[in-house]
Amino acid sequence: MTTLQLQLIVTLNISFYPHPLMSVTLADATAAMETIQKSSRVLVICHRNPDGDAIGALIGIALLIEQQFPTIPVFMHCVDPVPETLQFMPGASRVLNALTTKAGDALVFVDIAEPKLTELHESHPQLFDKSIPSIMIDHHPGNPLFGTVNILVPEAASSCEIVVAIADLLKWNITNDIATCLLTGVYTDTGGLLHSNTSAAVYRTVARLLRAGARQQLIVTAVFRTAKMSTLKLWGRVLEKISVSSEGGAVSAVTEGDFRATGADHSELAGAIDYVNAVPGMRFSMILSEKGGKVKGSLRTLRDDVDVAAMAGKFSGGGHKKAAGFALSGKLKPEMRWKVVEEEGKKNASAEN
Ligand SMILES: [Mn+2]
User: How far is the CA of 158 from the centre of ligand 1 (A)?
Assistant: First the structure.
């Protein structure tokens, strides 16, 4: 075989590579589409305390479904409001808090690692017992597959990437508004393409969304270049209180008092962990925060030999190997330790004076 022939084969292999996300199959995407097709209403649901990936995938898939099935009403739902920083997304004002189910509904779950993260598991258990047709789209390893159609892609950096893969497999049109929502999720779950989960597939999805007209500068400005005064003051407290734990982690904590004093709400803590995680030589980083009688822990690591999901698991939490979290009932108790060490030789010196 000549070099030229070989080169041609390699080129062909690349151009016919079906999709960066090989784990989404046409069969899965088709099953999802059929579930929607048979429904008379679609309710799309994301997790509480939503991030860019949750809201991006929520609105992105909702607008795709609406465009594809104009006669089927689509509702978007989250127990918490869309954070201010994400309100630039087209359709953000349509995200509802209240949720009621009806016969004929189909559910779409996005970015939900487990049912309790919706905070609907107790008030609406029927959502999760598979009695209502549902499509579960997620990238958290260990997801219990609570949908009737489950599209779990743990190697995806964001749920938004999975939505892109589904749309492309089904040849659904990604408009610039939809692309803007989906690119937001890709950006936020990769920390602006800086986290270790930023694979070649992520860049390919970014390119695909930019070609679809995603408003990249709108996202960058809103998500990475805008910080309220209260947010900066809260981060100031986080940074000021960093200490090194005996386990070799950079740890900081914010109390209810810190939130009150700075006027920041809990969502404004998002992103501060990346600064704590910047301390060199640490095994991991952690921010503890108080929220309504609970202590939340957010964990990160830059190391391959540290699994913060396992650490969070010890406190009934979970997540990814390099980014995880937990929540426990309780409050933070400050602990300050002082130790007086007498310097050698100084005793005699002072005695002479
Ligand atoms: Mn996500």
Answer: 5
pTM: 0.77
Instruction: Give how far the C-alpha of residue 315 lies from the chain's centroid of Cα atoms, to the nearest Å.
Output: 20
DSSP assigned state of 332: -
Q: Which pLDDT score, from 0 to 100, does residue 352 have?
A: 47
Under 8 Å between Cβ of 276 and 245? no
Closest CA to 327 of 300, 299, 306: 299
Q: Could you tell me if 207 and 309 lie in one domain? A: no
CB neighbourhood size of 283 (10 A) = 17
- Say how far apart CA 346 and CA 268 lie, in whole Å: 49
Residue span of the structural domain in which 263 resides:
229-329
CATH at residue 241: 3.10.310.30
The answer to whether residue 25 sits within a structural domain is yes
Q: For residue 49, how far is its CA from the centre of ligand 1 (angstroms)?
A: 12
Q: Residue 294 in 3-state DSSP?
A: strand
Question: Are the C-beta atoms of 92 and 55 separated by less than 8 Å?
Answer: yes
Examine the pLDDT at 260 and tell me if it is beyond 60: yes
Q: CB neighbours of 95 closer than 8 A, spacing ≥ 6?
A: 55, 58, 59, 76, 77, 78, 81, 82
SS3 for 24?
Answer: coil
Q: 113: CA distance to ligand 1 center in Å? A: 9
CA of 156 to the centre of ligand 1 (A): 9
More confident position, 58 or 271: 58
Last residue of a domain, one of 161, 196, 223: 223
- Quote the mean pLDDT of the chain: 91
- What's the DSSP call for residue 125? G
* Domain presence at residue 268: yes
Distance 138 CA to ligand 1 centre (A): 7
Beta strands in the chain (DSSP E): 41-45, 74-77, 95-96, 105-110, 134-138, 149-152, 243-244, 249-254, 284-291, 294-300, 318-319, 323-329
* 216 and 113, same domain (yes or no): yes
Between the CA of 56 and the centroid of ligand 1 the distance, in Å, is: 10
